[in-house]
């Protein structure tokens, strides 16, 4: 049986930190679904479709990765993909408390789906989409933080 993981997030926008987790996860699992969620507690810069398109562009060289959007409970999405795992990246200890709450709730909803935490590469441990957007907004250098396609899209968004 193939090992299938779901890697959820808002990815607004995708960064090299996200890509680090995706690429490493793709080496561990036979199939990784990148599940782009619309987080109702955030005000996104990019639409869900724009985020999906950017992720597809920057993951096109990873054959076992597929990108989709989803509205609803992550567990429902994972079940629809026959996924046995949820793949989550951790940057620092501060991420763990939030992630533990989500993981505990997901286990209540479906105890057969395991959550795997992967520590991001140290060089990306400070990186977040929010930081990238803030730097891009003021026309700062972001080429070492996001792929070229994302940098271009951010420059277009903040061209005004």
UniProtKB/TrEMBL annotation:
The gene is coaD. Keywords: ATP-binding, Coenzyme A biosynthesis, Cytoplasm, Magnesium, Nucleotide-binding, Nucleotidyltransferase, Transferase. Residues 6-134 form the Cytidyltransferase-like domain. Substrate binds at residues 10, 42, 74, 88. GO terms for molecular function: ATP binding; pantetheine-phosphate adenylyltransferase activity. ATP binds at residues 10-11, 18, 89-91, 99, 124-130. It is found in: Cytoplasm. Its cofactor is Mg(2+). This is Phosphopantetheine adenylyltransferase. NCBIfam families: coaD_prev_kdtB (TIGR01510), cyt_tran_rel (TIGR00125). It catalyses: (R)-4'-phosphopantetheine + ATP + H(+) = 3'-dephospho-CoA + diphosphate. Homohexamer. Reversibly transfers an adenylyl group from ATP to 4'-phosphopantetheine, yielding dephospho-CoA (dPCoA) and pyrophosphate. One of its GO terms (biological process) is coenzyme A biosynthetic process. InterPro entries: Cyt_trans-like (IPR004821), PPAT (IPR001980), Rossmann-like_a/b/a_fold (IPR014729). The record marks 18 as: Transition state stabilizer. Pathway: Cofactor biosynthesis; coenzyme A biosynthesis; CoA from (R)-pantothenate: step 4/5. Its EC number is 2.7.7.3. SUPFAM superfamilies: Nucleotidylyl transferase. GO terms for cellular component: cytoplasm. It holds the Pfam family CTP_transf_like. Belongs to the bacterial CoaD family.
